[in-house]
Design goal:
Length: about 150
């Protein structure tokens, strides 16, 4: 499987040609003050695995763990340091949900902004697995994921 790595540290994007990452992008590494802000990643959601069975929970403080996805995360995001205010939001023409597993636990969300999921707050350094799920098994709608730091 092809993989591109996007690393943003301080105020310099180290790979400016990947400001909008293609659907096969699988990893990103960022530090506070990253540019561009937000980072935009395009991909294809969904799969055949129930999100509840993937993360072994029905809900989290940020929302329900719902939908279907693939076993491998759509994105693996590494945070090099603590983020005081970081948000991850998904936009899609179809109704999607978000599942994130990382340091400190699992977070899920559905319909944070109408039919689009999002999770925002303080984030510990470490590696996060991110899945974009769909309501129907094996549906594969396109999505745009945005990672934004509030300063």
């Amino acid at each position: 499987m092809r993989s591109h790595r996007f690393i943003a540290a301080g105020a310099i994007a180290l790979i400016p040609s990947l400001l909008v990452m293609p659907a096969f992008a699988e990893t990103a590494t960022i530090a506070p003050g990253f540019l561009p802000n937000p980072i935009t990643i395009k991909g294809v959601a969904g799969g055949a695995i129930d999100a509840v069975s993937l993360v072994n929970r029905q809900s989290t403080p940020t929302g329900e763990c719902t939908g279907f996805t693939k076993r491998e995360p759509h994105l693996t995001l590494t945070l090099r340091a603590f983020f005081n205010a970081l948000s991850i939001r998904v936009q899609s023409e179809e109704d999607t949900a978000l599942v994130i597993e990382g340091p400190g636990g699992v977070w899920c969300n559905d319909d944070e902004d109408n039919k689009n999921p999002g999770i925002a707050g303080q984030w510990l350094p470490g590696t996060y697995k991110i899945w974009v799920t769909t309501y129907a098994k094996d549906r594969t709608p396109a999505y745009t994921l945005r990672i934004r730091e509030s300063r």
